[in-house]
Automatic annotation (TrEMBL):
Family to which this protein belongs: Belongs to the DprA/Smf family.
Listed name of the protein: DNA-protecting protein DprA
GO biological process, one term: DNA-mediated transformation
Domain (Smf/DprA SLOG): residue spans on this chain: 80-291
Superkingdom of this protein's organism: Bacteria
Amino acid sequence: MRVADAGDAVMGRLVAEYGPEGALGQVRRGHLDTSFVEELSRGRGRAPDLARMLSGWRARLLVADPVADLTEGHDLGARLIMPGDLEWPTQLDDLGPERPFGLWLHGDADLRFSCLRSVAVVGSRAATPYGTHVAAEFGAALSEAGWTVISGGAHGIDAAAHRGALTGEARTIAVLACGADIAYPAANQDLFAAIRARGVVVSESPMGVRPTRLRFLVRNRLIAALSRGTVVVEAAVRSGALNTAGHAVALRRHLAAVPGPVTSENSAGCHRLIRRAEAVCVTSAREVVELVGAVGDDLAPEPRGPVLPRDALDEDTRKVLEAVPARGGTGPATIALDAGLDLMTTLACLGALAAAGYVERAPRGWRIRRPTPIP
């Protein structure tokens, strides 16, 4: 974790082929096995500069102090998990050679258990009031439904989603682009403390590592891989949240996007995802659960308008009610003709409607009952 950058696919392949000790052994001697080099050269795309990479790995290895890292993490209250540990989320294996070498966890929640039913909620740091409101609503509703909310702990949509989740029952997970001992952004220090108490803070960077733009982009693959699906609440065309969306698509995770005002640049990225059919349009947390949940168990009810008293009327009675004029009045025979019913049925329906207060007698026959004015 000190020798190679997070997401280093070449080191990932080296570790997968020879194990961590075998990989570091080759770095120490300054020479990679010929068979490994030949295998990389046969791969598609541009071959990496192995000599330069090996030189960088060796320089870092000389100053690495794993005992000090473990001691510092222990003093902080963090723990280190590795692939194969009980708490390791096996869905991270989908990242292939870009799978993290290990993860630092700081918090009370069990990472693997918390990720079994989880949704990533991401979006713009420069969020609008609309975006932060939606993110908080989604976070709270998902948490109340028993779904862990995963995000990056940043300003804007991330922070709103975490805060919403903290009001519910489920856990929330913040995946950092820096060491677990660094609160970035510093203004969210209290939020990170709350997440550690009700969830867990995750980092693949050793203690003391500062965030960079590249680390944010590399971090995004973990957010997508840990969750069952990703929801982009608000994102401009060049938002980093679209990078997370790209990882979700590559990992074949569910991807959803929340529509916003068509005039808002902050929602242009979401609209592009929906227009290109890369993301499913969602407008509520229930629709998100239906998308990422178990088939048949997590269906969202179809949105319906308000239920009106006339909805309980049978078909014949509704036809008669539609045929009664609002003004003046008309006779039962005319009403029966307009409703397409016989006279006896129409008279029975008029009696029922009058008793229910829908119609009333008028000098010329029947009319819709006028509401009683409020004094």
